[in-house]
Amino acid sequence: MTDGLPEMTSLERTALYKSLGNPLRRRILDYLGRHGEANSTVLARELGESSGTTSYHLRKLAEQRLIEEIPEKSGGRERWWRALPFRHTTPDPAAMAPEEYAAAAELAQLKIEFDTALYRRAHQEYRGPEGWAQVQRHGSWMTREELLAFLREYHVLLERYTHAREEAPDGARPVLMRFYAVPEPVGEWNSEPTGP
């Protein structure tokens, strides 16, 4: 679900996954995340594309509420854009339409490749427990309800310690964080299948 927005339909989620899987759109979102704002001309120059191409993709990202126009900077044909805060939780794959599932699976594969490279980088850049790069691994016994409660508290912690780009204090840097949890594949636990 996106922050403060109504639940998306299967068709909207399919379009979102395809959009986020588009290499140029991902690069545009990355650029806006790092630099705060841009127009199609700036993006064309920085990303090695034509301004017509970047303009088209900016409009598509705006349709999906991933970015918005900056009215005070836009004028005439020159439109400036900024990224919007965004959060989305993928629904249960069993509830997805086939096209939605295919788009989500393709996007997940791209994320896995990116996250694997990020994990390697975190290990390479680790400089001890007080450094910028951190890697934590834990194992624990939890009920499913406790795991879900932990995840909710994790989101609360993220909100507490996260700043919007324009409000970040001196010394703040963009930090990429990932969270995943998976039960050990013990076959069955209390008559509930938990793995292969």
UniProtKB/TrEMBL annotation:
Domain HTH arsR-type: 15-106
Single GO MF descriptor: DNA-binding transcription factor activity
Superkingdom per UniProt: Bacteria
Gene3D superfamilies in alphabetical order: Winged helix-like DNA-binding domain superfamily/Winged helix DNA-binding domain (1.10.10.10)
Chain coiled-coil ranges: none
Pfam families: HTH_20
Protein name: Transcriptional regulator
